[in-house]
Amino acid sequence: MKISKEQKLETQRKIVSAAADLFVLNGFDNTTMKQIAREAGVGDATIYKYFANKDKLILGFYDTRGADALAEYRNTDDLESFTFAEKLQLLVDTFLEQLMADREFVELSLKQIIKSPITLLKDELEVAKSYKQELTTLLSNLDHDEAYPDIPMQGMLATLLTDYILGITFYWMKDNSKGFSNTTQLTDLSIGIIDSVLKSGFINKAIDMAGFIIKTHLLRGLSSGGGLLNMMQEFKETLAKQ
Questions:
Q1: Bigger pLDDT: 10 vs 220
Q2: What is residue 219's predicted lDDT score, i.e. its pLDDT?
Q3: CA distance 242 to 227
Q4: Which domain holds residue 198?
Q5: What is the DSSP string of 24-58?
Q6: What is the pLDDT of residues 172-182, one digit of tens each?
Q7: Which of 140, 153, 219, 234 has its CA 20 to 30 A from that of 15?
Q8: Beta strands in the chain (DSSP E)
Q9: Is residue 44 part of a domain?
Q10: Which residues contact 51 (CB under 8 A, 6 or more apart)?
Q11: 136 contacts 158 by C-beta, under 8 angstroms
């Protein structure tokens, strides 16, 4: 019997959820594909039709959760009435909400990715491709908005914004503030900066500055103290002087 696309997606969700639970319980190295298959309620051979190994399972977790987050985002009521900043905020919020229940696994898996980046990230994540496509569309739509001047390098900017969402995820993972208030503050501040930059036309220099912040600080897994928030505030003040 032919399996529908939705049935395949549901099986993937079961497998990655089982893997997340077992990786947290037993550790990555001490968990086997057979254990994951049994926990997910699929055959020992079936699991390999979806994921070739445990590394692929980690990436599959983010692809699956990201796809669900994008579906939730696109199904938001009156989405077309949202501003660019509100849509970017929603993209961040829906992604983090999808990860919330498995936050302990997210920390474990990101450490594994950092430990073996060549093995795990030799191919671009499907979720990254999907977010780049969505963000490219958002930027393209600004061509028809008089509040924004022409935006060059939209493909590069979409890539940077995808990295930005990943950077926020790293920050959130280490955020021990009540209700993740530091992450909320950082997201609000940084999205305000992004929107101001796009409206100002100060895009080329800002891309260089933002890329430095993301790659040097966020993607290193900077602890969620006040340092990054202070740096972003200084960045905002610098832009205001331009």
A1: 10
A2: 47
A3: 23
A4: 63-101+119-240
A5: HHH-STT--HHHHHHHHT--TTTHHHH-SSHHHHH
A6: 998 999 999 99
A7: 219
A8: none
A9: no
A10: 15, 33, 57, 60
A11: yes
